[in-house]
Structure formats: structure tokens, C-alpha cells
């Protein structure tokens, strides 16, 4: 009997996987094809995006990239990207200098050391830097790192941080050009890696996120400086540009953009919330900012993304996985921190399997994800994902080595492993989109509260007081909660959603260490003072946030990074 089993096993191990069938059910697209007769997902994606292509003279992306430069674009894609946009290569010396770049970082480090009594200048700083390696990053100069500081929650006078004002002066024309580019009606800029005729990276991991947060931070910093100089008009213009930058990309690229767009908009939020409490702001300015934030939760972008770019990316990745490309195998560890799951996937790929069955399963999973994403209730979406994950986990536990010797069983096991390795990103995107939509609603209502204060001299006692003059209604949030938490405080207000758990956690969030709207670990003395009656007790703030708390909150006034010259 054992001899018979061994013979059957050897026969199965020797079986060749069937040839990949190009069809709607397996490969999703049937043209264009590569030289080996398989779908060319990169070219299909680019052809879809090219439907939005406009002449260079009418393309806001050309002015944008000419000003920003191509430092964030892989060198092997740069020329093809320029050719696709019909623009010359940006001059290396004439592009925007980011506020967190080496030149400004170094200048701030030297300046701050001088403020603290250290005898240092440009020439001697190199020696000081060698003795104190973190000086260049200014890590020891503020309670948190410089990247956080340059997106800080405050404005400041010119004499308080001269290097930043000098940065603004050097880059004014370039920032103006970026703002003007955002005001143009047309925008065409496909991911650079799609623009090359042949890419040796089969994973499309080089696609990039087109992450423009550094540009958003530059605009936010200039807006902060403008507030310090009393130029609210310039500040508002830069804030509007940040929102346009965040929404300029096509809505059907890939899942990462959902979160990266939100991250860029969040760089504007601290400046906007400062305007809410400023006495020199106007109702027109707050109304203009209010219109940038949706009162009602917009339709999810996820179904469109899953039908378009994300699906092409996913099928391309799956096909490259079946072809055992080493570059693809190396990415498994990037997606998953479970070495056993990664190794099991590698082991499966060493054996023959039913490739067409696997690809049909990938397409079915995309259809399931689309159906889940189309549900309006976020709690229901997340519950169905959790159920899907549990079912797959149970199936994997029940799968024995003997079952894996079947071509069909191996295909199913590979599909399950791939979902467990990559599926968590779908959950993250759903939660991220819901959180961003709710934060947008909070910002809309915060502007309404600011407009109420301008008209009445103080914030209202209840949120309902802003309806209907300053806000059309109190909306239902992205989690289905029909009301928001609001409290007028001695120095401002606390406004929050009850989050996914639907419980009033008084504006606290455990995972983010937020206590009643403030980050509990930041500048503890200042937070204690700002919290007032919300302070839970003596001692450190950490540890007071309820374990289950998940409220989405904003609070005015903001925590401010301490600077030299405060109080002068």
C-alpha cells in the first residue's frame, strides 16, 4: 500500500501545470499581449490612463514637475516620464528646495544651537556634527524630530525661526508656480514606471505612490509663516492648493493613493484649525476652507480603484508569482511578517499547480472585495473581511501535505496564502478611508464653529447651534453614528466622532495615544494645562487613555511646539 501511495505521489509531483489561458475569467484582460503571449498589464494600464492625456501646454502636471523636479522618480524612468508628458528634463539646480531638505535642516540646527548658547557657525558645525551625530537632524533640538516640526501646529514670528523665513524667501517663486499648477483644470501624470517600453521589474513595485507629501508640507510651512506675518490671504491660497494636490490624481489608480491623499490633506489641518480661532480671520476665508471638506460622507473610492488600477496591479503580481520571478518572491516578506506563511508560499511555488484555477480565484477575490467595498456600512465591511479571513485561516489549518499534492489543492492553498499575506492592506484601506472621511466632516463642522465665533464672540454651547446658518445639518459619520461629541472648553472646543465602536470615549483614541483630543505624550506640561478639567489625575498622561477608545477627534487650541522668543 505504501508503495502505491509513493508511486501516486511521484506521479503528481511530476505533473506539469497547465498552460495559462488568456481569458476574462483568468487573466482579466486579453490584450495587449507581451511577446510571450501573456497580458501586458503595464501597457493596458497606461493606455487606460492616456484617455485623460492633454497637450503639455494645457497640462498642470508639466509646470508642477518642472518645479518639483524628478528626485523622487527612479532614474531609469525619468526620461520616459518626461517624454510621456512632452516636457524637457527639469533643471537640477532650479527646482523646489524642500523645507526638510539638508540645507534648511542644517541652517535650523546651527541657528538653534546658537540660541542655546553653543558657539557654532557654518564652518565649525561640521566638527560639532561629528561629535554629535544627531545635530544635523536636529533630533535633540526639539522634543520631536524636525520633520514633525516643519509641519508644526503653530505659526511664528519671523525672528523666531529665521532659517525657515529665509527658506520661504528663496522658494517663493517656485511655490507660487506650484500653486498656479494646482489651479489649472487639466492634469495628466501617469506613474513613471508605466512609461518605459520594457521594465525589468516584473512586480510593478517600482510603480511608486507618487507621494507628494513633502510638497504639501512645503505649502503648509509657507502658510504657517504667512499666518505669523498676518498674510491670511496667502495662507488660505496655499491651503487650497494642498487640497487640490491631494485630489489631482485620477480616482482609479491604486489603493495606496487613498491613504496618501489623506496624509497630504492632513498636513493642512493644523493651519486650518489655527485660522478657526484667529480673530483676524474672516467669515469668507473660513467659508472657503469649509467648502474643501465634505459635510456628508462621499461614495467610497475603493470599488472604482479595485476595478481599475489595483486589479491590473494584482493580476500582474499574481502572474509574476506563478512565473517564480525572484523579485516577486522577495516582496512576500515585505507584505507579511509571518515567516512561516512566506516560506509555505515559496514551497508551494516550487511544485506544479493549476495556474488557471489560481488566477480564477484571484479574480473571484477581487469581485468579493468590490462587493464588500460597495457596502455603505463600514462596520459591515470590516465584519465581512474578518469572516473571510477566518474562513481562509480555517481552510489552511485543515489542509494537509497530502492534499497539497493535488494541482488544484495547491492552487487553492496558494490563493489562501496570498490573501492572508496581502489581504490586511484591504482592511487598512477601508479603515483609513472611513477615518479620513470622518475627519473631513469634523473639519467642516470646525469651520462652522469658527464662523459662529466670529459672529457671536464665542463658541456655541451646543453643536446644533451652527445649524442651519453655518452648517446645513449635523451629518451621519462614516461609521454610521448619528451624532458627534462636542464640548465648549475654557479655551476652545473639543469635537469628535464616536468612531468604529460607537462609544463616547470623550475624544480619546488608544492606538494613537490621544486623550480628549490631545496627544498624551507630547509636551506633557502644556497638555496638562490645555486639558483643564479633562485631566484625569496627577502624574504622567500616558496610561490614562481607555484601551478600547477609538474616537476621531480635533481640539482647539492646538498643542504648540515651544520656540525661542515665545512671549516676546
Key descriptive features of the protein:
568 residues, mainly alpha, two-stranded antiparallel ribbon, Pilin-like, Type II secretion system protein GspG
Order of strands, main sheet, comes to 1-2-5
The oligomeric state is single chain
Average of per-residue pLDDT values: 82
Compute the separation of the termini in Å.
Answer: 92 Å
Question: How much is the radius of gyration in Å?
Answer: 27 Å
Q: Helices and strands, in N-to-C order?
A: HHHHHHHHHHHHHHHHHHHHHHEEEEHE
The largest β sheet comes out as: 3 strands, antiparallel
Poorly predicted ranges: 1-15, 136-148
Principal-axes shape call: globular
Q: Helix content range of the residues, please?
A: 40-55%
Proportion of β residues? under 5%
The computed structural class is mainly alpha
Number of strands: 5
Total number of helical segments? 23
Organism: Aeoliella straminimaris
Protein name: Type II secretion system protein GspG
Describe the structure.
52% of the residues lie in helices and 3% in strands. With 568 residues, it is mainly α. Among the domains are: 102-150, no CATH class; 304-427, no CATH class; 481-568, no CATH class. The strands form two sheets. A three-stranded antiparallel sheet has the order 1-2-5, with helices on one face. Helix 9 (213-228) runs antiparallel to helix 10 (232-247). It is globular.
